[in-house]
Specification:
Layout: H1 5-10, H2 15-24, E1 27-33, H3 37-47, H4 50-53, E2 57-63, H5 66-74, E3 81-84, H6 85-93, E4 98-104, E5 108-112, E6 128-132, H7 138-151, H8 155-158, E7 160-164, H9 166-174, E8 180-184, H10 185-193, E9 197-201, H11 202-208, E10 218-223, H12 224-229, H13 231-250, H14 252-262, H15 267-280, E11 284-285, H16 287-304, H17 306-309, E12 325-326
Parallel strand pairs: 1-2, 6-7, 6-8
Antiparallel strand pairs: 3-10, 4-10, 5-8, 5-9, 11-12
Length: about 325
């Protein structure tokens, strides 16, 4: 995807002109987490006036945690958040009308300290494994399915597991209390920058399980009714978001500018965060990717059961907002 000439011109508007345009545009309130990946993209949009060029205004609302973001969306305090599409599917299964536009195809990785005896998934047997999130975290369910299909191992029974928040588990691995860690990609990126070894990216496990490419793991989520009433806002936001990703995909200087927002301790961490983010940019979104998402749902439903997916047995219609794209950057 290339940035159009009019977008580049819009990015150079004077501050006064941007303020005038933004003031006349309906604001989109977007819930963001401090140092979260969404805040990077929103900052790029606003810094380069991509929202003004798209005739929209973005109002970021900082929230404390992912669960707080879900509560804020449900309470109408924000119009949009980024969340796991499985949450959207389950909510639609109980009558909610949330829908989603893909944000990232990256999810996380199995990593290990440089001196760990764990070199591959079978080595997890009998060793201390930290798992970010809960027993129903999709990365853990995917790893379990991968271990069973590829190696015939019940990793749930074989590994010495501990679940917890990613920052706590990262500290435990640094302290030598974990032989391996399954964690979300920003934490995997920072650990890799500090010398940790990457054993298996969750996305690679998904591919090895025979599921198609391009599955989105999280996306911008909003009410279908709101979107149907404001189609120009959604179209403008999606355009601005994709333009921001093009900048982040092609400009290393832009990463230096947003570095304070990433929480990166140094350039090595920033480079790993940059590389992981770029790998996760959705390049295409259409029927093949929707089919891949349905395949992944079936896999996760079999592994996680009703505790994960609730009363639904397939991805409900409307889970994904009807939009298609293909990018060349």
């Amino acid at each position: 995807m290339r940035i159009a000439r009019r977008t580049l011109l819009g990015a150079t508007l004077s501050a006064a002109a941007v303020s005038v345009r933004a003031a006349s545009a309906p604001p989109i309130r977007i819930g963001v987490l401090r140092f979260g990946t969404v805040s990077w993209e929103i900052d790029v949009i606003r810094h380069h006036a991509l929202d003004a060029a798209a005739h929209i205004a973005i109002e970021p609302v900082e929230l404390a945690a992912a669960q707080a973001a879900q509560v804020a969306l449900q309470a109408g305090q924000v119009d949009m958040i980024v969340v796991d599409w499985l949450w959207v599917a389950r909510q639609r299964g109980t009558g909610a009308d949330w829908t989603l536009v893909p944000f990232s195809n990256a999810v996380g990785a199995l990593i290990a300290p440089a001196n760990s005896p764990v070199r591959d998934v079978p080595d997890l047997a009998g060793h201390a494994l930290g798992i970010a999130g809960s027993p129903l975290d999709k990365s853990w369910l995917i790893l379990r399915a991968y271990a069973t299909q590829r190696f015939g191992i019940d990793i749930d029974a074989a590994a010495n597991k501990s679940f917890g928040p990613p920052p706590l588990l990262a500290e435990q691995m640094k302290a030598g209390r974990l032989d391996a860690l399954l964690t979300y990609w920003p934490f995997a990126a920072k650990a890799e920058a500090a010398g940790a070894r990457s054993i298996l990216a969750v996305e690679d496990a998904v591919s090895a399980l025979g599921i198609g490419d391009g599955v989105p793991y999280i996306g911008y989520t909003f009410a279908q009714r709101w979107a149907e009433q404001n189609p120009a806002l959604i179209d403008g936001f999606v355009a601005a978001s994709r333009q921001a990703r093009t900048l982040l995909a092609t400009s290393d200087a832009e990463w230096q500018r947003v570095k304070p927002m990433t929480g990166a301790a140094d350039d090595a961490e920033l480079e790993r965060l940059r590389d992981w983010y770029r790998r996760g940019i959705p390049r295409r979104w259409g029927e093949p990717e929707r089919h891949a998402a349905a395949q992944l749902f079936d896999l996760l439903a079999k592994t996680g059961g009703a505790s994960l997916v609730g009363p639904i047995d397939a991805v409900p219609p409307g889970t994904f907002w009807p939009i298609t794209w293909q990018a060349d950057a």
